[in-house]
Amino acid sequence: MCGIVGYLGKKQAAPILLGGLEKLEYRGYDSAGIAVLADSSLEIAKTVGKLQVLKDKLVDNLPAGYMGIGHTRWATHGKPSDTNAHPHTGCSDAFVVVHNGIIENYQKLKEWLINKGHTFKSETDTEVLPHLIEHHYKGDLAAAVQDMVRLLEGSYALAIMSTKEPDKIVAVRKDSPLVVGLGQEEYFLASDIPAILNHTRETYILEDGEMAVLTADGVTVYNSLGEKIVKEIFHVQWDIQAAERGGYPHFMLKEIFEQPRAIKDTTSGRINDAGIVDLGLQMTPTEIAKFEKIAVVACGTASYAGMVGKYVMEKMLRIPVEVDIASEFRYRDPLVDEKTLVLVISQSGETADTLAALREAKARKAKVVAITNVVGSSVSREADEVIYTWAGPEIAVASTKAYITQLVAIYLLSMHLAQAKGMISQHEAEELALAIKKLPELADEVLGQAANIELWAKSIAKWEDAFFIGRGIDFAVGLEGALKLKEISYIHAEAYAAGELKHGTLALIVDNIPVIALATQEALFDKMVSNIKEVKARGANVTAVAFAGNEEIQASVDQVIYLPKTLPILAPVLTVIPLQLLAYYAAVARGSDVDKPRNLAKSVTVE
Ligand code: M6R
Questions:
Q1: Could you give the domains of the chain?
Q2: Can you tell me which atom of ligand 1 is nearest the CA of 398?
Q3: Core-most of 216, 279, 371, 511, by most CB within 10 Å?
């Protein structure tokens, strides 16, 4: 996730671009850049680091000119660096591009362009774009952009300028947001409304495939066939604070609702319909075959993603998988060696205990694969291999979209390892691939139940204790559900393996106490119903989370949240969503500071 801006008008562009980027820094902050065009002369300033680094660099020499584009980056392809920062140009400076999204087929396009004599400077997927425009340009920038986008697979919001046509900015989008701002003789572009709200409230919200051409005479919008269309003006009514959160009252809710997109990005270009997974890992099948166990090491939510991973990997790979809390692993003289694959999971890639555990594992000669959300983070630099989750920056302290993309990365890794070990049939791989690709759509369906979940959450908000029960992979998700609830609503919550209740916890069940029973696993369904009856008999108020089609559960509980059907092994991706929403709405009902809960920090870089 990155942020892009553009300006064309009668004012100096650079201060407006930097002001817009400031409002978009939540979308990415590992590097920033701007390009300003004045009478066919292009000036580009870009640098690794937060936007402030760029501002400091430009304080006494802002590029002059009345039109420009800008970018704040959250690295996906290529580490954060001056060279990888946007804007990007082709072989010459004739075409300059900023991009938000992922070009899935960039490797193929890059090879093709290199064969045609193009030379590349960066490691990014984006750089293919100015080269492609160079290739297609025949005197009409908008036409060259139209020709280029036909070749692209993946997602993009683009702003493009050219010294050959220094009177216009061309913008186009697919699966990444892009807004055009309409001022008085000045026009704006942005990934998100806050970037332009200081200047105008009149906007065009571009749809997939639409292209806008900004000139001093106004903005012309074309559809994907290149035909001019009349766009309806959208008048923004939100205030600036709400707009920064995309109209959501909290970042956490915004991030929960971003999950379908985050899942899609994390699978993007990594799995095909035949079920072949390409995570860019270097481990050979021979190396993979020699692993005798997998040790997952992480903290908090990331460790609970690892718990789901234990069930998934043991089932698919038939080798033991241990899950360790990093702060325990590092001091426990862990039993890992060169026959162990250590999977380190960390959203931030900077958690002190996780990093120390990673170093401990490497010192013991284990192979370390990391799943992290932050390109260039310490974990990503020190691991032997990295799988990035492409969730985009997570602002709320409570992890949501990072967790869900960690799960997706675990599924992809498990498939990759199973393929290398010959432990997955073609039919199973295809079935899984199809089901994984459907997850964004199903996640959207679950989010459609938010209003009902809010009502349910309000009833639970009155309690000081709640219990999550489940068996197998559902138990693993229960752990995350309980953490979410206690972390932001401050309700004491515990997750139990349902079969364990009668060994002690049942003593805590009193009249009407909320119990959330996760019952998605068909093979364990009858057992779960028996456990539900145990707590019901002691007076609990039970809400079940189950797949649609299992309506018989209704008779045993007080209410049910139904999930759309997917493969049982993928259920956690959907099951966790109502639990995140429950925690969120309960916290709101109790008046907690949802995005910054007491005593907690987003990145725990101390022991
Ligand atoms: O950045 P990390 O994934 O390494 O962080 C690990 C935990 O601190 C983190 O998941 C924490 O538990 C979250 N606040 C939970 O929502």
A1: 3-244 (3.60.20.10), 252-439 (3.40.50.10490), 448-589 (3.40.50.10490)
A2: 16
A3: 371
